[in-house]
């Protein structure tokens, strides 16, 4: 990346003896949508708050548009932020909330009114200008909060788990709306979430965080299909982990249960006799032998869950259990628990976790 | 009627009698100035007395300054403690309770000793200085009520997130306090203000020992020298206090409603 718009370099944050962010590095291009994804306590919100200016880094620098903002106060950064708890001002109407930042900036009344009307149009709530926050649903409040954040045309938009307090249906529609508005305005955005589906569905890139560090930064496709660490592989998506033993390091063969699987070029210096953790996504596994799948394992069906369009099947293979989904077919009854079963997959889909 | 309900009504009736009988007796007595018939003569005398108007006006003005001083001290302090120094809350709560356990007479003697005409800070050497000291003393007496009212108001809003939301939109501390925090705790501040008003109007010890022409010493003076007027004055003072309490109730209906409800 030649000239990043947002550059977070070697940022560290400690509270007393506890370090919550360690040597965090990230470059974000202008107009990019980057998600910080990780479990609670991984430091993702702390990094976001440092970018906003609510926390001061113990070390490192934060540069936006070529300007070092590390020590600037939040009100000097020209950054917009949407909070999990909406944080609309209860005493102000929707229009006054959206116009708050513009009024603080000293914009003339007529310009504020025009910008507020434009924002209400963008979030598709033009009739709500005179309502108070308590008269709106959670989804509407969060859209107003988004409009308020982008009204002053900030350089950077920060979204701190903005969908967490909403119900599932509203969450999906609002995330699509956020992404569409972000694309339309071309505003560089950082989105904090612990919901992998959210991150995968709307991000240009994802920084998966764990223990105060970015474990992996990549596109949703890379993060899902080529996880760099065991944590990323386990955290993002559903994963079947199988224990295997390297039988011939030179040939790249591994024994899983009593069957051989070829993993040539993936063993990364493992020696014969080493034990490895191997991972397979459920969608990479088929029940029964399928054409084009070069590996198979035998086992016994231990659980069957009928979920409507999909049937989730768990197959016991030695000491491991593998989960896979098959589409429901009205002509074919689901497999029965206790039946012998064979699963097949392409060895190229198997991940070796380090 | 179930026996439980009977006892509840009996307790209620006894409580109401304890409260209302002396009040009704005082009203009745205050109206007996004219022999053989009820009249409002005592009220006319009291309200027409120039000293009543002067002392009441003085105390109202002192109450207004006390409220302004109280708001200027308590709102930023309570806000800052909620925002940045929550660990200090128990200590500050204890300090704000001290005026309830330290008698006003101790505070006023302390003032006389500290700020007498021979001291390095001779507040008591001039009328203006003494008036200022009285207002400061009143603000101290009203501190427990003002602090609790404001703190309760702050508890109903998400102080930290609202502050951060205003900050990120470019607002400085002045804008945050005047346009975001204060409007959302205004009803609580007004509650504190009316309680302060009620305390100041009836306060005797400080005003008397600092020799100020306030309403409290006037009440005492009338009570010691007249028969019917003190009863009329007690009812007037009671009406003022009740008026303040009613205003708190009415204004609380206009409090900004919290928007942070689940979807």
Written overview of the protein:
- The complex is a heterodimer of chains A (354) and B (263).
- In chain A, 24% of the residues lie in helices and 35% in strands.
- Chain A has 354 residues and is of the alpha+beta class.
- Chain A has two domains: 6-235, Rossmann fold (3-Layer(aba) Sandwich), CATH 3.40.50; 240-353, Beta Barrel (OB fold (Dihydrolipoamide Acetyltransferase, E2P)), CATH 2.40.50.100.
- In chain A, strand 1 (6-15) and strand 2 (18-28) form a beta hairpin.
- The longest helix of chain A is centred in the middle third of the chain and has 18 residues, at 168-185.
- Chain A has helices spanning 44-52, 94-104, 109-122, 138-150, 168-185, 196-202, 220-225, 230-235; strands spanning 6-15, 18-28, 33-37, 59-64, 67-68, 79-82, 156-160, 188-193, 205-210, 213-218, 240-248, 253-256, 259-262, 275-280, 286-287, 295-306, 310-317, 320-327, 340-345, 351-353.
- Chain B has twelve helices and no strands.
- Helices cover 77% and strands 0% of the residues of chain B.
- In chain B, 33% of the residues are buried.
- The radius of gyration of chain B is 22 Å and the shape is globular.
- Chain B has 263 residues and is mainly α.
- At the A-B interface, strand 6, helix 2 and helix 4 of A face helix 7 and helix 8 of B.
Question: What is the CATH class of the largest domain in chain A?
Answer: Alpha Beta
Low-pLDDT windows of residues of chain B:
259-263
> Any idea what the CATH superfamily of the largest domain in chain A is called?
P-loop containing nucleotide triphosphate hydrolases
Q: Oligomeric form of this entry?
A: heterodimer
Greatest chain-chain interface? A-B, 38 and 25 residues
**Terminal CA distance of chain A:** 27 Å
The 3D shape of chain B can be described as: globular
Strand content of chain B: under 5%
Give the radius of gyration of chain B.
22 Å
CATH 2nd-level architecture of the largest domain in chain A: 3-Layer(aba) Sandwich
Outline the biggest β-sheet of chain A. 6 strands, mixed
Give the ordered list of helices and strands of chain B. HHHHHHHHHHHH
**How many helices of chain B does DSSP assign?**
12
Strand content of chain A: 25-35%
Distance between the termini of chain B: 44 Å
Low-confidence stretches of chain A: none
């Amino acid at each position: 990346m030649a000239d990043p718009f947002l550059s977070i370099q070697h940022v560290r944050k400690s509270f007393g003896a506890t370090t919550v962010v360690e040597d965090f590095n990230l470059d974000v291009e202008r107009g990019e949508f980057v998600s910080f994804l990780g479990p609670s306590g991984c430091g993702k919100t702390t990094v976001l708050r440092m970018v906003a200016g609510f926390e001061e880094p113990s070390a490192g620098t934060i540069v936006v548009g070529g300007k070092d903002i590390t020590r600037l106060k939040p009100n000097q950064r020209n950054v917009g932020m949407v909070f999990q708890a909406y944080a609309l001002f209860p005493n102000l109407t929707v229009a006054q909330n959206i116009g708050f930042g513009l009024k603080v900036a000293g914009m003339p009344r007529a310009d504020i009114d025009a910008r507020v009307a434009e924002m209400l149009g963008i979030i598709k709530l033009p009739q709500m200008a005179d309502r108070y926050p308590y008269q709106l649903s959670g989804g509407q409040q969060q859209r107003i909060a988004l409009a308020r954040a982008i009204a002053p045309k900030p350089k950077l938009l920060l979204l701190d788990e903005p969908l967490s307090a909403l119900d599932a249906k509203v969450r999906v529609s609002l995330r699509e709306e956020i992404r569409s508005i972000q694309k339309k305005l071309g505003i560089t955005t950082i989105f904090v979430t612990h919901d992998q589906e959210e991150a995968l569905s709307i991000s240009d890139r994802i920084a998966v965080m764990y223990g105060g560090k970015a474990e992996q930064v990549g596109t949703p496709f890379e993060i899902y299909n080529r996880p760099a660490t065991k944590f990323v592989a386990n955290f993002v998506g559903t994963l079947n982990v199988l224990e295997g033993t390297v039988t011939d390091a030179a040939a790249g063969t591994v024994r899983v249960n009593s069957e051989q699987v070829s993993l040539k070029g993936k063993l990364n210096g493992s020696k014969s006799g080493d034990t490895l953790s191997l991972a397979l996504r459920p969608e990479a596994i088929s029940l029964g032998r399928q054409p084009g799948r070069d590996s198979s394992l035998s086992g016994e069906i231990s659980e069957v869950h009928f979920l409507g369009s999909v049937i989730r099947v768990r197959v016991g293979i030695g000491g491991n259990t593998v989960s896979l989904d098959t589409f429901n077919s009205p002509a074919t009854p689901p497999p029965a628990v206790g039946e012998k079963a064979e699963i097949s997959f392409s060895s190229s889909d198997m991940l070796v976790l380090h | 009627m179930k026996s439980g309900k009977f006892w509840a009504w009996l307790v209620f009736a006894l409580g109401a009698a304890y409260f209302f009988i002396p009040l009704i007796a005082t009203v009745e007595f205050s109206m007996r100035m004219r022999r053989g018939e009820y009249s409002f003569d005592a009220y006319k005398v009291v309200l027409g007395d120039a000293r009543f108007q002067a002392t009441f006006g003085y105390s109202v003005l002192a109450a207004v300054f006390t409220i302004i001083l109280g708001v200027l001290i308590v709102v930023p302090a309570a806000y800052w403690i909620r925002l940045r120094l929550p660990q200090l809350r128990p200590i500050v709560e204890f300090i704000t309770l001290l005026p309830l356990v330290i008698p006003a007479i101790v505070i006023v003697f302390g003032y006389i000793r500290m700020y007498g005409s021979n001291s390095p800070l001779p507040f008591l050497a001039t009328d203006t200085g003494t008036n200022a000291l009285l207002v400061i003393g009143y603000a101290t007496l009203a501190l427990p009520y003002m602090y609790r009212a404001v703190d309760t108001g702050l508890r109903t809003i998400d102080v930290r997130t609202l502050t951060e939301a205003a900050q990120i939109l470019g607002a400085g501390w002045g804008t945050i306090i005047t346009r975001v925090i204060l409007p959302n705790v205004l009803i609580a501040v007004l509650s504190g203000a009316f309680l302060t008003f009620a305390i100041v109007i009836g306060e005797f010890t400080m005003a008397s020992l600092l020799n100020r022409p306030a309403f409290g010493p006037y009440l005492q003076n009338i009570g010691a020298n007249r028969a019917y007027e003190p009863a009329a004055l007690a009812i007037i003072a009671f009406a003022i206090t009740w008026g303040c309490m009613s205003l708190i109730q009415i204004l609380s209906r206009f409090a900004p409603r919290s928007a942070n409800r689940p979807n």
